[in-house]
């Protein structure tokens, strides 16, 4: 079953995430894919995340397909203009990559080449609309293509950044532009997420797109503190930081926390699945999936 | 999905029109630069962003905000400034223009960069500004409600 069919049926969806290496070593992805293969439905492949040069997301997604894992290719507007975006999308479709996640992209001054020129020809809402237009068989120029790609379109949402209401307006725009599924930023504040989800259900958006809530297992309190300090737009409840700080075994506590969050999310109205992003800790995925009593559907 | 996603070059800008455009831009700048810090995109959407120029965003997002707005509403790239879209939201709320934020803004036509938006409105390349919004709250409700209905 493909991710598209799973989203159309009523199954609980589990997504993973792999960051490609900062070298041409494709084996890194092959190694990491083992942790996801039998446990998750699809795996995100990041596109030069945090504006650091990495192995390209198309190539990485192709490697995942060869390993038998369904990829979700992320595509950002930071590095490409509308020509390159459409060309890359055609290339991805030709390689049987069926899912794309449309993002605006992290600003380039945060990365390893801060002197570069950010492109930002489109923004993520327009990118979602562009992919939807290509699905219907047309380029942005209005020209018709002989064979239309059939992408499952994803978009991101951040329930935790300010202003709260504006986030819902933007989510509404993305879904209206043609997004089929939405992945959120990692949930470290269940109170805000519950409030956000209630509003999403009230607006009826959960019926039009599958909402996949982000979950990030962390290894130590230091990681959480660094994220709180350095990553704008992420809210972390102090309760979690304290729990990690005073835990006897912080790794074990991290798993326990992730499992707890997953179980709360699973029972929340409107949440269709989770998006697990174990940054630099991919090996923990099987443990978390097992302890949260989740099962990959075939 | 909006019908026309991109602002197209129709009618195309002629060389003589560019001269007129430059003259008009001179007068447009006298008003728009001090008041709105206009970035001369030539495709003005000021009226639907509560009269705050969205092109001052470092990512030049026309359908903002990005996910990086900090807790106090400052920009992720320049923490000393407020996020443009944060200001747009609160100004729209104040002026009862929230319903305009729901509309997907078209993809920018870079050929219109540094041309007069007034002339472009006159030539019908871009949409005319919306001065008054009545029953904003009802309009927002309609937008949300209609979408739910079409799905069911």
Question: Would you give an account of this structure?
Answer:
The complex is a heterodimer of chains A (about 300) and B (about 150). Chain A has an eight-stranded parallel beta barrel with strand order 1-2-3-4-5-6-7-8, surrounded by five helices. Chain A has helices spanning about 5-10, 25-35, 55-65, 80-95, 125-135, 165-175, 190-205, 205-210, 220-230, 240-245, 250-265, 285-290; strands at about 15-20, 40-45, 70-75, 100-105, 150-155, 180-185, 210-215, 270-275. In chain A, strand 2 (about 40-45), helix 3 (about 55-65) and strand 3 (about 70-75) form a beta-alpha-beta unit. Chain A is of the alpha/beta class. Chain A has one domain: TIM Barrel (Alpha-Beta Barrel), CATH 3.20.20. Chain A contains twelve helices and eight strands. Chain B is mainly alpha-helical and about 150 residues long. Chain B has one domain (about 15-150). The radius of gyration of chain B is 17 Å and the shape is globular. At the A-B interface, helix 5 and helix 6 of A face helix 2 and helix 4 of B.
